[in-house]
Amino acid sequence: MARNEYAPKKKSRNGNRSDRGRSERTEKRQRPAREHLERTETQEVVDFVFGRHAVVEALQTPDRVNRVFIQEGTSGRDAAKVIELAREKGIQVQTVPKTKIEDLVGNAVHQGLVASIAAYEYADLEDVFKKAEEKGEDPFIVILDGVEDPHNLGSILRTADATGVHGIIIPKRRSASLTATVAKASTGAIEHVPVVRVTNLTQTIEQLKARGVWVFGTDMNGTDYRKWNTSGPLAIVMGNEGKGVSRIVKESVDEMVTIPMVGHVQSLNASVASALMMYEVFRNRSI
């Protein structure tokens, strides 16, 4: 929790021709259009799809696509279509040298087009509401506004599972994604807590409010979280490790809450602050 992370706002509720060359080319063509690689330097598992058809198909389910790589000099209708589709879906496109493409997918026939996709599948917002309904509970959602440390995300998932959170929402950009590092830090909770990845947090917040969910932000100024009315459907927004909740998100929430502190360091780690907020909801709902 950064200094400005956790202020009351709004309403308040409380080419070779040889046989060998032909053989090599045939082997390349027979390789599947998908690679699963482990990046040992970060211990993060990443999936890649490559080639025009595979990349276009991946872009049909954009929630799983992290980024599109296009080899320098790649042009034509295929590349133009991929670029247009990626930008339409709000997915970052990066032009890279051939050596980078080969680092990602080796000698596969990639046509200069590669997409990085999530190694773990994301849920839909509807899945979160369905989980709450199946348990006969009011929806309890955590929204992470730019939490970029994968260990923090994993720890938050672990606490979310322990406190009965029905789902976590993260943005596509400025956020840790679901990786092996996150999975390890979550000690398996990644398999039990739905994670929804969205393009626009403020639009998602408006969707939640339209469905009767009260959305709370966290900041240094606001209602003391110990006096926080946690009844009914709610979502709590936790901010970036350094900058806190972004201004535009603050303007979208119903009310701000704060964690009071008396020490010299007026901030908490994002996963620690999130744990306090989640356990406060859990405590109130268990009474």
List keywords for this structure.
6-stranded parallel β-sheet, alpha/beta, disordered N terminus, 10 helices, 5-stranded mixed β-sheet, 35% helix, 287 residues
Draw up the topology in text.
Blueprint lengths: L18 H12 L3 E6 L4 E7 L1 H7 L6 E7 L5 H12 L3 E5 L1 H8 L7 E5 L7 H11 L4 E6 L4 H13 L4 E5 L8 H6 L9 E4 L2 H10 L3 E11 L9 E6 L7 H4 L4 E4 L11 H17 L1
Helix pairs in contact: 6-10
Description:
With 287 residues, the protein is of the alpha/beta class. Helix content is 35%, strand content 23%. It has helices at residues 19-30, 52-58, 77-88, 98-105, 125-135, 150-162, 180-185, 201-210, 247-250, 270-286, and strands spanning 34-39, 44-50, 65-71, 92-96, 113-117, 140-145, 167-171, 195-198, 214-224, 234-239, 255-258. The chain has a six-stranded parallel beta sheet with strand order 8-7-6-10-9-11, with helices on both faces. It has a five-stranded mixed beta sheet with strand order 1-2-5-3-4. Strand 3 (65-71), helix 3 (77-88) and strand 4 form a beta-alpha-beta unit. Helix 6 packs parallel to helix 10 (270-286). The model is unreliable at 1-11 and 15-45 (pLDDT under 50).
